[in-house]
Amino acid sequence: MTAQPKILIVDDDAMVRMLVGQVLRAHQYRTVEAENGREGLRLFCQEQPDLVLLDVMMPELDGFACLQQIRALPDATPIVMMTAIEDTGAVEQAFRLGATDFIGKPVQWPLLPHRIEYVLRAHRTTQNLIEQQNLLQRSEQRYRELVESLSSDYFLFSLDRQGAFSYLGPSVEQILGYPTEQLLGDCFALATDNPINRTARSHTQASLAGRKPPNYEMELRCRDGGNRLLSLNATPIFDERGQVIAVNGLAHDISEVRRTQQALSDSEERLRLSMQAAKLGFFDIDPRTGKTIVNREYSAMLGYEAAEFSADIDAWAERLHPDDRQAALERYRAYIAGEIGEYRLEYRLRCADGGWKWILSIGSIVERDADGRPLRMLGTHTDITESKTAAERLKLLAKVFENSGEAIFLCAPDLSIVSSNQAYTNITGFRAEEVLGKKPAMLDSEHNDSGHFRRIRQALKENGYWQGEIWDTRKNGEPYPAWLGISMIGGPHGAVSHYIGIFSDITERKAAEAQIEYLARHDPLTNLPNRTLLRDRFDQAMAHALRNSSLVGLLFLDLDHFKNINDTMGHDVGDRLLQGIAERLCQCVREVDTVCRQGGDEFIIILTDIPDIDTIAQIALKILDQLNQPFLIEGVTVCTSFSIGISLYPNDGLNFHGLLNKADTAMYAAKNEGRNTFRFFSHDMNLASIERMNIENGLRAALKQNEFRLHYQPQYSIRDNRIIGAEALLRWQPKNGAMIPPAKFIPIAEDNGLIVPIGDWVLREACRQNRVWHDAGYKLLVTVNISALQFKRGNLLESVRSALSESGLAAEYLELELTESVLMFDTATVIQQIAALKALGVSFAIDDFGTGYSSLSYLKRFAVNKLKIDQSFIQDLSSGKAEDAAIVQAIVQLGDTLGLLTLAEGVETQEQAERLHQLGCHKAQGFYWNQPLPPDEFGALFDAD
């Protein structure tokens, strides 16, 4: 309610409304008036008054109907009825419908404000009482829920002033076995003769006297004859005069806890005695501080007196053998950190006399804090020096026998086997117990001639040793070749003590020899003939064509965009794809034809005895159709296409190498014409191939001969046409020729890897030139385009550091522009290099954003600073295409949201520049301002300003 209550007056008599309003306003009330019930109902909902004065008799909607509709609303506003009707029935009806009070007419004007104040005060009092009742009910409900939610090990109790139980929680029956009503009375009625109950009586009397006692214990008898130990927390309750009227408390059954504690104490004592008898060292570590407690046996096993023995974690680390220290400390720290689940470690500790003992240390964390951090670790130390030394000797003696990669067997003088190693079982399939007491089968194998064993015995008798290749049979009946060496071991008086045989399975060696022969003529991945075998097949096909006056078709096939498949799906998928392609290619040709994998993603097909060119074209179309069908590899659908070049014997040449080069040239022509097609070799293709070769050769010398140039395209602030930066663009001007467009030589440099050293030169030159402009007072941000190969094959980070260092340019004035191909390549490597470069202060931009595979995932994973809007979206801004404007605006808004700058490329008209400015893009470059300029012409732009 407000400081000046608002009164709604509803009466059809204007005079009454005026008089009532004047009287109330004179007493600091605000008024709102309505001339009928319907208007009054509307104003009630709109004005939300603090009180309503409502006339009974009114047109349209009388007072009773208006009252009834107001009371149907979720509102308790007081309503006072006014009427001149002297009818007790009307009064009763008004109160029944929810009226708060009743005023008769004519109104006693001096009393009206006081009557209104009384009604409002009574209403406020009633509302406060309702709120207090609600709070009390909620408090009682929370207390009830708390009592009911207590564990069955707890119960609430209350004692009256005589020390008798006046209330017991429901869990008491489960704990003591008695119904609650039987326990109401003397709280010590069930007390045992345990001495702790004397203390309990004292604390109970203290609480009844008004003193809060500490937690105390009490032992009571149960209904089943047993005893229960309770922990009590009691609090005296006082009345308004400070007199104790009750003692309330909480009881906790700790019987099981105490029994567990006692059992643990007994167990610890037995453990102490056992460890003392077994001479086991014991340690107790606080991992937080490294403080350690050890028993006497711990120090004694190292030769120290207990009093002089330092046992903290640092002293332990100092006593560790230098060769064992790092591993022991790392394992201890890993266990404490929760990285490993078991602490069991063997290491050497320095003794008091300077010697070393091997220790087996076993420990476990036994206590943690609320957050799971270790508070206590217990463990044992056992001296294993003797067993360790003995075990090492046994290992050394058995190492040659058991761990030998060759099978070893030991025979008695009668050639019966007395021992064999694991390699024997691995090779023959017979377990040691199966051959024990039997003669080695290899000395009597059915695969060896009858005189073989006789010759072995003769060699042993004469030389004491024999070795050679023999055949044996495995347990599963499979024959295999072996290389055996068998020696005689002499005993006393020159007698034979034992024979020892050592042999190896040479199946793999023989298979490898055959495989080497096979691999020399086949591709290991696809099992297709390789180029060596292909040449033999071509010679045969050429001879056949010469006899039959037919053609030989040589098809050179290159898989389009195979690198993208390897980079995005992995080399395993790439290998599976090549195998699938090999199968389909073999299905597209005849048995007399030959399909060869040249290497990588290149295949060669020789078509034998072909009558005409049309037949070869049909086969090429069939191959393209088959290879256009999707491949399903490991649940992933992979679509492919091929570029095919075709040369013919004898039309295009008479030797294999010449025809292969011409088919290769035709294949590149197919790629240049859009891929997924085939082309027959022609003379024009040869000219194009020569041009490519000349460019490639020229590129190799261009750097040395200083033929590269950088032109700079200015970047402008659209608002004031101010130059804010420049993009460095590579140009090639041979000394004795016309300038070669970047579109011709950059793809070739990408193919042959020369883009890496060229890119390094661009970085150095751009930084050098920018520093020249800086020294002249023009501080610009220069953007340099970065190739994917510079990330993959070059040392980009070192190149940038060198360029900045040599030029003296601050890193903040260098921006590296990344293309989609960079972002798709080896993401982890790119992210790592970008992070290192940003640490230098270099910024990054994404070129042609909005095309290709550019997506929000790049912006999330790659820490770029700027988005360059592709010129394809800019060109149609002036034509009014709504979709291009929407895309540009979306990119700008995305950049603003992510805190990235945006710059538009390819601006050619003033209208485009103005439209970009309207869309929120304030930076741009394009022919509208300038085309790329040489450094001196670019510098002149500053002079013009």
What order do the helices and strands come in, and which of them pair?
Layout: E1 6-10, H1 14-26, E2 30-34, H2 37-47, E3 51-55, H3 63-71, E4 79-83, H4 88-97, E5 101-104, H5 112-149, E6 154-159, E7 165-168, H6 171-176, H7 180-183, H8 196-208, E8 216-221, E9 227-238, E10 244-253, H9 255-278, E11 281-285, E12 292-294, H10 296-300, H11 313-319, H12 322-336, E13 343-350, E14 356-368, E15 374-383, H13 385-402, E16 407-411, E17 417-420, H14 422-428, H15 432-435, H16 452-463, E18 465-473, E19 479-490, E20 496-505, H17 507-519, H18 531-548, E21 551-559, H19 562-569, H20 571-588, E22 594-599, E23 602-610, H21 613-628, E24 631-633, E25 636-638, E26 642-649, H22 656-672, E27 677-680, H23 683-702, E28 708-717, E29 722-732, H24 742-752, H25 755-775, E30 781-786, H26 788-792, H27 796-807, E31 814-818, H28 820-824, H29 827-840, E32 843-849, H30 856-861, E33 866-869, H31 871-874, H32 882-898, E34 901-904, H33 910-918, E35 923-924, H34 935-944
Sequence of strands across the biggest β-sheet:
34-33-32-31-30-29-28-35
Uncertain stretches of 5 or more adjacent residues: none
Strand content: 15-25%
Mean pLDDT: 85
Radius of gyration: 50 Å
Total strand count, please?
35
**Largest sheet report:** 8 strands, mixed
Distance between the termini: 70 Å
